[in-house]
């Protein structure tokens, strides 16, 4: 609901600026358009950006934050003579330092007095011709990045993502952001997303993240589900790096699933049935991997799995997960490929998943129609098969171990 309210507001802004057709045309070619439904704050920022500027639209979430912060901090006032470049850079540096302090210490707010003291200390150490009172007034009263508490004693970032963006910008500028397993912690992952978006071309950083071996199950989930966002953020990276990364993520996703259902990891997911887990995993893969930018990588990863993987069961799970994402990217033959290659040896859970997913495509594909017919006949005539299916749907995984 919040997102659609944002969209309606955005349309009104575009109409007032006579930009509505341009917005639709530009955003339809932008990866930003694919991200907006998932991030209502982005729709709000874009609307604010359009009210104040008719510059080229940002093409990524990171560019959107960069342009919005420049607007909010007065970058575009310099040309109007309302602010100096030195003052803008000082405000930006102070807010970056503040973001690093708050995130590194897991703080949500800071006292107004401490902020003022930090500003004063920063200016005292530098020979800058910037007035402290005017700087504090402009930063706290105009920027719309920091907001005061009701009692006016403390300040916090208006939205945590502002702090995460500024943290990333400071870390990239200093060159002190370590690309390690911390990128798969929920607390830090947006900062890494912004960092990769600022770098744009980040082959070494992406390879380092793909090579990480998370220790906890939570980090394993976050790695599988969030690496596509990192690939999208660093979109100027040589595509071979992204293709290799998608292949590795398919392998890790399948391995994570099999480790849970075969009892090789201590997971709370064993409390749910096997088909429920597979449904959840494929839903998350679709949501995070089904982007046109990644479509070629998804297809090539499936082909590579067929060539390099000996285990039919493992290969089937990995290719199935790639196939559901490819299907959402418009590849109508993604399931046919899996059925034609491994139909006779498919694990039961994958066979059932293809049976459910193939409904709309059955009329168009002989291979899918044949597969669905075989499953239906087994359900009707084979009691043991039907019992196995019922267990996969109804019995918690822990009882099947």
Description:
The chain is an all-alpha fold and 401 residues long. The protein has 3 domains: 2-72, no CATH class; 78-162, Arc Repressor Mutant, subunit A (Orthogonal Bundle), CATH 1.10.10; 238-399, no CATH class. Helices cover 67% and strands 2% of the residues. A 3-stranded antiparallel beta sheet has the order 1-3-2. Helix 4 (40-52) packs across helix 5 (61-72), helix 11 (203-211) runs parallel beside helix 13 and helix 18 crosses helix 19 (366-381).
Write the topology of this structure:
Layout: H1 2-16, H2 20-28, H3 31-35, H4 40-52, H5 61-72, H6 85-104, E1 110-111, H7 112-124, H8 132-141, E2 146-148, E3 154-157, H9 160-174, H10 189-199, H11 203-211, H12 217-233, H13 239-261, H14 274-289, H15 292-308, H16 312-328, H17 334-342, H18 348-357, H19 366-381, H20 383-394
Give the gist of this structure.
This protein is an all-alpha fold and about 400 residues long.
| Overall body shape | elongated
Described by strand count, sense and barrel closure, the largest sheet is: 3 strands, antiparallel
- Mean pLDDT over the full residue set: 83
How are the strands of the largest sheet arranged? 1-3-2
Rounded radius of gyration (Å): 25 Å
Q: Name the structural class.
A: mainly alpha
Count structural domains.
3
Q: Would you report the number of β strands?
A: 3
Distance between the termini: 42 Å
Q: Helicity range of the residues? A: 55-70%
Which residues form runs of ≥5 with pLDDT under 50? Answer: 1-10, 13-38
Q: Quote the beta fraction.
A: under 5%
Number of helices: 20
What is the N-to-C succession of helices and strands?
HHHHHHEHHEEHHHHHHHHHHHH
């Amino acid at each position: 609901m919040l997102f659609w309210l944002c969209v309606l507001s955005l349309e009104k802004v575009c109409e007032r600026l006579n930009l509505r057709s341009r917005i639709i045309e530009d955003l339809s070619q932008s990866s930003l358009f694919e991200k907006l439904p998932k991030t209502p704050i982005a729709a709000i920022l874009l609307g604010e950006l359009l009210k104040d500027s008719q510059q080229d639209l940002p093409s990524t979430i990171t560019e959107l934050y960069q342009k919005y912060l420049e607007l909010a901090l007065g970058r575009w006032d310099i040309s109007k003579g309302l602010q100096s470049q030195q003052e803008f850079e000082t405000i930006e540096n102070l807010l970056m330092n503040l973001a690093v302090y708050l995130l590194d210490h897991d703080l949500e707010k800071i006292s107004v007095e401490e902020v003022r003291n930090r500003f004063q200390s920063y200016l005292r150490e530098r020979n800058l011709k910037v007035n402290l009172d005017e700087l504090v007034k402009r930063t706290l009263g105009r920027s719309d990045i920091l907001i005061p508490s009701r009692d006016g004693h403390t300040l916090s970032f208006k939205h945590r993502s502002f702090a995460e963006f500024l943290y990333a910008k400071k870390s990239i500028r200093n060159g002190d952001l370590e690309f390690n397993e911390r990128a798969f912690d929920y607390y830090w992952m947006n900062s890494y997303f912004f960092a990769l978006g600022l770098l744009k071309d980040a082959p070494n950083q992406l390879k380092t993240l793909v090579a990480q071996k998370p220790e906890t199950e939570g980090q394993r989930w976050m790695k599988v589900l969030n690496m596509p966002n990192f690939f999208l953020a660093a979109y100027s990276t040589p595509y071979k790096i992204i293709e290799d990364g998608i292949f590795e993520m398919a392998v890790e996703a399948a391995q994570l699933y099999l480790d849970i259902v075969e009892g090789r990891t201590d997971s709370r997911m064993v409390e749910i049935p096997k088909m429920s887990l597979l449904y959840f995993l494929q839903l998350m893969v679709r949501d995070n991997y089904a982007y046109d930018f990644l479509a070629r990588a998804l297809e090539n990863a499936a082909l590579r799995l067929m060539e390099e993987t000996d285990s039919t069961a493992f290969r089937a799970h990995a290719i199935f997960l790639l196939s559901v994402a490819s299907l959402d990217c418009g590849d109508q033959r993604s399931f046919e490929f899996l059925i034609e290659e491994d139909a006779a040896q498919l694990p039961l859970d994958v066979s059932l998943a293809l049976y459910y997913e193939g409904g709309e495509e059955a009329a168009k594909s002989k291979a899918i129609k044949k597969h669905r017919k075989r499953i239906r006949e087994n359900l009707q005539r084979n009691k043991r098969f039907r019992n196995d299916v019922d267990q996969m749907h109804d019995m918690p995984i822990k009882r099947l171990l």
